[in-house]
Amino acid sequence: MTTLDRAKQIAALIDNKKGEEVRVLQIGTLTTIGDYFVVATGNSTTQVKALADEVEEKLSAEGLEPKRIEGYASASWILLDYYDVIVHIFLKETREFYALERLWGDAPEIDWMK
């Protein structure tokens, strides 16, 4: 599976659990930290955790473990680092405050539903 396929898979997993505003940004030409960001919003800390849990459980079943997980305790912004694909799951207010898409405005957005 390519890293783009993995990013699309993660976006679909989040979308299937009712994550909102799911976006995939191609960051590989702008930085060395990874190839893609998957960015999504949950409506509550419970949903943010559930979205992160879904991604972690499904990828773990395929033998892929995250390099690290940040923010799970507070659940206003959970980061799952899968090396080349970095997943950001936010509460709406936190996503608006940090404006990751604006910060990475030069990163092309990928149509992950294709």
Automatic annotation (TrEMBL):
Signal peptide: none annotated. Belongs to the Iojap/RsfS family. The gene is rsfS. Gene3D superfamilies: Beta Polymerase, domain 2. Its main location: cytoplasm. HAMAP family: Iojap_RsfS (MF_01477). The keyword Repressor applies. Interacts with ribosomal protein uL14 (rplN). Functions as a ribosomal silencing factor. Interacts with ribosomal protein uL14 (rplN), blocking formation of intersubunit bridge B8. Prevents association of the 30S and 50S ribosomal subunits and the formation of functional ribosomes, thus repressing translation. This is Ribosomal silencing factor RsfS. InterPro entries: Iojap/RsfS/C7orf30, NT_sf. It is found in: Cytoplasm. Keywords: Cytoplasm, Repressor, Translation regulation.
